[in-house]
Design brief:
heterodimer; A: mainly alpha; disordered C terminus; B: five-stranded antiparallel β-sheet
Chain lengths: ~220, ~350
């Protein structure tokens, strides 16, 4: 059995999760602070969660394809994104981003506004408030968002196959490998990949539940929830 | 040296429009819920931005809409005690106090130590806010506020979130703390008794504007507007019709009253506090003036006093006019006769309050 889909999947989803982690937090912070156009921006960046992944992949193809301005600009530097593992990272990032963004945004909005106001009157700088007060208080949500994003990136299929294709050893991820195995009638191989994907997915859900329940316990011990 | 606040802020249909100057003193801001008193404090702290106006603390301009000055809360040095205390749940008591500590790093531990001792928090240093009781949380919030060395302390309904048995104790502690604090202290409350006990000066806010401001004794004994009379606890207020310089007709009660002071054109209401009304029972001599024959509507018994709800016989008591009821409070030791023998009320001349609209 060739394990390259596993390695490609892990590589792609880890990198995508790292990018989503930062973009999601920054996106959530920017949108929460926005005074106007909040709904519109929120809608646009949540869209990849609602659209069929193939449509997202199609949009990415339009954006990075050889005929687009961005594609042509990248061509000038001899960079071609489409049908490379980088394209798979982009697809996974775009699709997993809304999960991270939504989870963290919800947590940011739940942060007691009086607490932030109090921190300001005490003279704490905005950066210090963000890192010392807001982030520690929404840490469980950040973790939950990260794991959800990772799980989503790992299972990404539609957008990936549109923009990164199905090149064994280069862009073929586990999700795509299952599809290929079934298509070519290789049931046994399909079962193997399904088992591996299920194991990793279960493990990440357990990890998430563990972190959430640990936080609940901590709160109960602290006497409030 | 004073705190000057003149701000306007529109919030939907509500218009906050206050103009006040405070000396370095303990000032109470008294008003019903939703009158804009907390919003005023928030504007001073810089948490909310007024639409226009000026806020000047001593010689520092905190806010000036015309000059485009709007200092962030971080630079205002204004301490705000939130109703919810707004402690940082991820930090311990010690860290909560230390994080806003204004002294240099080398002396910080000492400063935190001193605040912990001053506010009786010894033994709780390593605990986190959710582990503490309401009273302890409030003390942490006060310690944290004092550690930031603010020039103004603002307490927003400091007793509202406490159990009634804690209130008294906490009030004593706060009274002691603010009496030693050398700066401006503003206390917002809807409870006139708290304000009276804690403050030296009082501002009464009604519907977003300053109704009255002055020494507390003057304000409580001689409120000059209807709203400040009601907020300082006057239970009986009636609209009037001027008859002569020293005589008015109280429309809601149906009685002509002789008064001690000349009635100017501005006077539109008359008031009398519940404990100044004198109940007259059968067998008592009927006073020559300011006497109203009444029907007893309701008797409420307190441990040491009676509350008699009555209405003048000439006025039909209307459900839609709560002011037609007269509320008289009398000590049981003073009123020896049974409330059932009640026949009428005397309005002592020197207890009547002449009020502007």
């Amino acid at each position: 059995m060739n394990f390259s889909p596993l390695i490609i999947s892990i590589k792609v989803s880890v990198i995508a999760t790292i990018i989503t982690f930062f973009l999601g937090i920054i996106g959530a912070r920017v949108v929460v602070k926005m005074k106007r156009g909040k709904g519109l921006v929120d809608g646009i960046i949540t869209l990849p969660m609602i659209l069929p992944p193939t449509v997202v992949g199609f949009f990415l193809l339009l954006l990075f394809g050889k005929n687009s301005p961005l594609g042509r600009l990248l061509m000038n530097f001899d960079i071609s994104i489409v049908f490379t593992w980088v394209a798979a990272v982009i697809a996974s990032t775009v699709v997993s981003f809304p999960l991270m963004y939504r989870t963290v945004r919800g947590a940011f909005e739940d942060v007691d506004s009086d607490m932030i106001a109090a921190a300001r009157t005490l003279g704490l700088s905005e950066t210090r408030i963000f890192w010392k007060i807001i982030v520690p208080n929404v840490f469980p949500s950040i973790m939950a968002g990260t794991i959800l994003a990772f799980a989503r990136a790992l299972g990404e299929f539609g957008a990936t196959i549109m923009i990164a294709g199905n090149i064994p050893g280069r862009t073929q991820t586990m999700a795509v490998a299952v599809y290929t195995a079934v298509q070519s009638g290789n049931r046994e191989l399909a079962y193997k990949w399904v088992a591996i994907i299920c194991t990793i997915s279960f493990a990440s859900m357990f990890l998430m539940n563990y972190i959430t329940s640990r936080h609940v316990k901590k709160n109960v011990k602290r006497g409030g929830l | 040296m004073s705190l000057y606040v003149r701000i306007k802020k529109k919030l939907g249909k509500f218009m906050l429009d206050v103009d006040m100057t405070f000396e370095k003193d303990i000032v109470g801001i008294l008003g019903a819920s939703g009158c804009g008193k907390s919003m005023t404090l928030r504007c001073i702290a810089g948490i909310e931005t007024p639409d226009e106006g000026q806020i000047i603390l001593d010689d520092r301009v905190l806010f000036d809409s015309e000059k485009g000055i709007d200092l962030p809360p971080q630079k205002r040095h204004v301490g705000y005690l939130f109703q919810s205390y707004a402690l940082f749940p991820n930090l311990t008591v010690e860290e909560n106090i230390a994080i806003g500590c204004a002294v240099e790093k080398s002396k910080r531990a000492e400063c935190v130590r001193e605040k912990i001792e001053k506010l009786h928090l010894v033994g709780l240093e390593k605990k986190r806010p959710p582990e503490l009781s309401g009273g302890q949380q409030q003390r942490v919030a006060i310690a944290r506020l004092l550690a930031s060395e603010p020039e103004i302390i603002m307490l927003d309904e400091p007793f509202s979130a406490l159990d009634s048995h804690l209130k008294w104790q906490v009030e004593q502690e706060i009274a002691e703390l603010i009496s030693t604090y050398k700066g401006y202290t503003l206390i917002v409350s809807h409870n006139r008794d708290e304000i009276y006990r804690l403050c030296n000066r009082v501002a009464v806010i009604t519907d977003g504007h300053v109704d009255a401001i002055g020494e507390k004794d003057m304000l409580f004994e001689n409120p000059d507007t209807r709203e400040s009379a009601i907020l300082t606890g006057c239970k009986n207020v009636s609209a009037i019709e001027r008859i002569s310089e020293f005589k008015v007709r109280a429309l809601d009660w149906g009685i002509e009253l002789e008064v001690n002071h000349p009635v100017s054109d501005e006077i539109a209401y008359i008031g009398i506090r519940a404990h100044f009304l004198k109940p007259i029972c059968s067998g008592d001599s009927i006073p020559a003036e300011n006497y109203l024959k009444c029907t007893l509507v309701q008797v409420i018994e307190n441990p040491f006093s009676w509350i008699l709800m009555a209405s003048g016989e000439e006025v039909a008591v209307r459900e839609d006019n709560p002011w037609s009821f007269l509320r008289c409070e009398v000590e049981k030791a003073v009123m020896k006769k049974a409330p059932q023998s009640f026949e009428g009320l005397e309005f002592p001349k020197d207890c009547l309050l002449l009020l502007k609209a």
